[in-house]
UniProtKB/TrEMBL annotation:
This protein's name: Ribosome-binding factor A
Any one biological process term the GO annotation gives: maturation of SSU-rRNA
Organism lineage string: Bacteria, Pseudomonadati, Bacteroidota, Bacteroidia, Bacteroidales
GO cellular component, one term: cytosol
Subcellular locations according to the entry: Cytoplasm
Pfam families attached to this UniProt entry: RBFA (PF02033)
Function as written in the Swiss-Prot or TrEMBL entry: One of several proteins that assist in the late maturation steps of the functional core of the 30S ribosomal subunit. Associates with free 30S ribosomal subunits (but not with 30S subunits that are part of 70S ribosomes or polysomes). Required for efficient processing of 16S rRNA. May interact with the 5'-terminal helix region of 16S rRNA.
Annotated source species: Hallella mizrahii
Recorded GO MF terms: ribosomal small subunit binding
InterPro entries: KH_dom-like_a/b, RbfA, RbfA_dom_sf
Keyword Methyltransferase: no
Keyword set includes Metal-binding: no
Self-association state and partner proteins as the record states: Monomer. Binds 30S ribosomal subunits, but not 50S ribosomal subunits or 70S ribosomes.
């Protein structure tokens, strides 16, 4: 029962975070930030979001910028989901480098 609630809230947070990043990166032409996966702790207090950033050369710079603005992102998230959640979870952001890893493996396989 608890896992169903966690999954439902994780999907909600993923959708809302994606919309927040989409609206904020609209001014930065050529930059795309997508939320690939969201995990939420069992007590719903910590939200871990994995971000895929294109182009990947700017990923560290953008991640540092996102981490510096965590409070404003959490505030915006709170404005969007205040009717569904009592407590807005603490946000943690990480780079999802699975696509880069796949590209690297493909390069290694094509070399031989």
């Amino acid at each position: 029962m608890q896992e169903t609630r966690q999954n439902r809230i994780a999907r909600l947070l993923q959708k809302e975070l994606a919309e927040i990043f989409q609206s904020q990166t609209r001014a930065m032409h050529g930059v795309l930030v997508s939320v690939t996966r969201v995990r939420i702790s069992p007590d719903l207090s910590i939200c871990t979001a994995y971000l895929s950033i294109f182009p990947s050369a700017k990923s560290e710079e953008l991640l540092n910028n996102i981490k510096a603005n965590e409070k404003s992102i959490r505030y915006e998230l709170g404005r969007r989901v205040h009717n569904q959640l009592r407590i807005i979870p603490e946000l943690r952001f990480f780079i999802d480098d699975s696509l880069d890893y796949i590209d690297h493996i493909d390069e290694l396989l094509n070399k031989k």
